[in-house]
Amino acid sequence: MPLLKLDTNVTLDTEQKSKMLGELSQLMSKETGKPERYVMIGIAENNAMLFAGSAAPLAYLECKSIGLSSSQAKNLSASICQLLNTRLSIPQDRIYIEFSNCPADFWGWNGSTFG
C-alpha cells in the first residue's frame, strides 16, 4: 500500500527510469517495513515545472502509506533526497515531498480495503 509518485522536470532515458523505479520501490519497502509486492511507484518526468522562480532540476513527490509515522517520513525524506541527488543531480533543497498517513479503511485494493 505504500505509494510514491515522483514529478520532475529532469528528463530520464529508459534505463534511468527503469533503475529509478526499482530503487524507489526497494527504498519504500525498506523504510516503511511493507512488502515490496504492495509498493507502487510512479514517475512523471520532463514536466514543465518551476521552483523558486527557476526551472533548474527539481522534484515534487507524494508519499502515502497506511500507518506512516513521522519518524518514517523523516527517514524517507533523507533517503529519497539523497537518491534523487545522486542519480538525477537534483539538489536536495529543490525537492519537496508530501507525506500522508492513510487510514486502512480508506485504502482500496483487490475489491475491498485494507481496514
UniProtKB/TrEMBL annotation:
Catalytic activity: 3-phenylpyruvate = enol-phenylpyruvate; L-dopachrome = 5,6-dihydroxyindole-2-carboxylate
One Gene Ontology term of the molecular function aspect: phenylpyruvate tautomerase activity
GO cellular component: extracellular space
Major localisation: secreted
Protein's cellular compartments: Secreted
Keyword line: Cytokine, Isomerase, Secreted
Domain of life the protein comes from: Bacteria
EC number, UniProt record: 5.3.2.1, 5.3.3.12
A Pfam cross-reference name: MIF
SUPFAM superfamilies: Tautomerase/MIF (SSF55331)
Listed name of the protein: L-dopachrome isomerase
Organism: Methylomonas methanica
